[in-house]
Write a structure and sequence with these properties.
Blueprint lengths: L4 E4 L3 H12 L4 E4 L4 H4 L7 E3 H9 L4 H6 L1 E3 L1 E6 L2 E6 H5 L3 E3 L2 H14 L3 E3 L3 E6 L7 E6 L2 E6 L2 E4 L17 E17 L8 E3 L6 E7 L2 E8 L10 H12 L11 E16 L2 E2 L2 E3 L5 E2 L7 H22 L3 H28 L7 H16 L1 H12 L3
The chain binds 8-demethyl-8-dimethylamino-flavin-adenine-dinucleotide and P-hydroxybenzoic acid.
P-hydroxybenzoic acid binds next to loops.
Amino acid sequence: MRTQVAIIGAGPAGLLLSHLLHLNGIVSVVLESRSRAEIEATIRAGVLEQGSMDILNDAGVGARMRAEGALHHGVEFAFGGRRHRIDLTELTGKAITVYPQHEVIIDLVAARLAAGGQILFETGEVALHDTDSARPSVAFVHKGEAQRIEADFVIGCDGFHGVSRPAIPTSLRQDFQRTYPFGWFGILVESAPSSNELIYAQHERGFALVSTRSPTVQRLYFQCDPKDHVDNWSDDRIWAELHGRLENDDGWKLNEGRFFQKGIIGMRSFVCAPMRAGRLFLAGDAAHIVPPTGAKGMNLAISDVKILAQALDDFYKKGSEAGLDGYSEAALKRIWRAEYFSWWMTRMLHTFADASPFERQVQRAELENVVASRAMSTALAENYVGAF
Ligand code: RFL
Ligand code: PHB
C-alpha cells in the first residue's frame, strides 16, 4: 500500500491531521490499534479553548460542538470556604467550550469516513521503518494479515504510550519529565450540574474539580494517591470526600447522583524535543503530556497538527521544507507555555504531603493574590482560554 502521509493513532491529533490534510488534497492513512467503538467511548478531556473551536469550525467539523457544547465565560476557584469567580470573557474577550473529547472523536471519524478517508482500526504490531530516509514505511497487522504502507512521511499521533516516540533514538532527542506524587480520581455522575461553570477547589484534604459533560451528567475529580484503587472507594466515601473538599460558607451544594464511571489517572509533565527525526514527526501526547489541571492536552494536540498540516501543505504545494524544518520549534514554543501553566495550576491547587507549614501558607497566599489582583486574574485567564 502507498500513501502520502501515514498517521499512527486515531486520537484528536491523528484524526484532525488526516482531515486537515484531506481539505488540502493530501492523502493519508490512519492506523489505530483500538476499535471504532472503543475510541468513540473513551472518556477523557472536556475543555476546548476558543482557538481549538475556531480550528474545528474552520475545518467544517464544528456543527455538533456549536449545538451541544456549553460555552463558559468564567471559571471559579474555591478555597478557605469561599468561591471566587474569574470572568474569562471580561478579562480576555474569549471563552472556553465544554465539549467532551469523545464527541470530537465521533465528529472527526464521521467526517473522515464520509470523505472516503482510510482509518484502519484494530491494527497490531505497528513498526516504523526507514524514517531517516525519503521512503519511510510502516509495517502492521490488520485482520490477521501482515501489511506495509509506504509513505512520504510518518506522523506519530499515538499518544504517550505509543511506538512512534521510542522509534526516535535517544541520542537524537531529549526528554524532560516530572511525575507528581498524586493522581486524580475521576467520576461521571448522573445528575444535573451543580454549577454553571467549572470549580477548581484547593483544600487541605486535597484538590477537587467540578466539571460537566451535559445537562444530565457531571464530571467530578478529586486528588488521590496514584497507587490507590477504585475498589477502595465506596460511593459514600467518595461523596464524603467531595463534600468535605467542596462545600462552602455560601450555601452552595454539590448535587449527588448515580456513578457510572470511576477511574484513577496519574499526573505527569513531559516534553520530548525535538518532535521530529528525519521523515518522522510527533504530534499531541506522543510528544508531550501536561497534568490535566490546566485543561491543555487536547488543545495542544489540535494546535500541533494545525501547524504540521500547514507545513505539509507547503511541502506538497510549494516544494518548501521551511515549515517542516520549523515545526518542532514553532510547536514547542506553545507547548512549553502550556507546560508552565499546567505545572503552575497543579502546584497552586494540590496538597503536597511533604510541604512545610510555611509552604502551605504561601500556596494559599498565591491563590488569594490570583483572585484579588486583576493583573494575576488576567494572566490566569489568558493562559486558560489560550489567548496567545
Ligand atoms: P490520544 O488521544 O492518546 O490518541 C492516541 C491514539 O493512538 C492509539 N495508539 C496506537 N494506534 C496504532 N498503533 C499503536 N501502536 C498505537 N498506540 C496508541 C491509541 O489507541 C489512541 O487512540 O492522543 P492525542 O491525539 O495526542 O490527544 C491527546 C489528548 O487525548 C489528551 O491530551 C487529553 O485527553 C488530555 N486531557 C485534557 N485535555 C484538554 O485539552 N482539556 C481537558 O479538559 C483535558 N482533560 C485530559 C483531561 C486527559 C485525561 N486523562 C485520562 C489522561 C482529563 C483526563 C482525565
Ligand atoms: C474535564 O471536564 O474533564 C476537565 C475539565 C477541566 C480540567 C480537566 C478536566 O482542568
